[in-house]
Amino acid sequence: MPLQPTDLIEVRRSQGRGRGVFARKFIASGTIIERVPMLVFSDKEIHIDGQPTTLYHYCFEWGRETVAIALGYGSIYNHSYSPNARYDDIAQRTKIFSAIQDIQPGEEITINYNGDPDNNNPMEFEVL
Q1: What is the strand order of the sheet 59-63 is part of?
Q2: Quick one: which of 21, 25, 26 has its CA closest to 10?
Q3: H or E segment at 91?
Q4: Band of residue 114 on the pLDDT scale cut at 50, 70, 90
Q5: In terms of C-beta density within 10 A (0-12 exposed, 13-18 middle, 19 or more buried), how is residue 121 classed?
Q6: pLDDT tens digit string along 35-81?
Q7: 66 burial class (0-12, 13-18, 19+ CB within 10 angstroms)?
Q8: Quick count: other Cβ atoms within 10 Å of Cβ 77?
Q9: Which of 1, 56, 85, 93 has a Cα at 20 to 30 A from 49?
Q10: What is the DSSP letter of 45?
Q11: How much is the pLDDT for 126?
Q12: Measured over all CA atoms, what is the biggest interatomic distance in the chain, rounded to whole angstroms?
């Protein structure tokens, strides 16, 4: 399956969150926003002397003692307990990000880092 960049989104500053992914144009609910390849590696590679590195904050848990970085903009989406998008694994090392509600131009696209958009389990960080 070919993976191509999309013109639906862009990365910009997100108020109080650093960078985030934003809609460049209207995205209807159900639209696949982005398909991204995943780079999988040992979770030991995101720690130095037992402390998490900057890369740690951009990883997805991937399995026993492994993590993955989503290429494209996949590792830059911000978390929300009321997300407007979700992510799903669709192939061995590929994720899709898709809209779960209509997203307006200029609106930040957020996902629930717990995987399930309805999962409100606490995060290891302060949620805005």
Answers
A1: 59-63, 66-70, 32-42, 94-99, 85-91
A2: 21
A3: strand 85-91
A4: confident
A5: exposed
A6: 999 999 998 898 888 888 888 888 888 888 899 999 999 999 999 99
A7: middle
A8: 24
A9: 93
A10: G
A11: 58
A12: 45
The CATH number of the domain covering residues in 9-111: 2.170.270.10
Token digits of residue 125: 């960080």
Whose tokens are 């990883």? That residue is: 59
Residue type, position 96, single letter: I
Tokens of 118: 């309805």
Residue type, 41: F
Sign of the C-alpha dihedral computed for residues 15, 43, 119 and 7 taken in this order: positive
Q: What confidence tens digit (pLDDT) does each residue in 69-105 have?
A: 999 999 999 999 999 999 999 988 999 999 999 999 9
pTM of the predicted model as reported, rounded to 2 decimal places: 0.86
User: Which residues face 36 on adjacent strands?
Assistant: 95
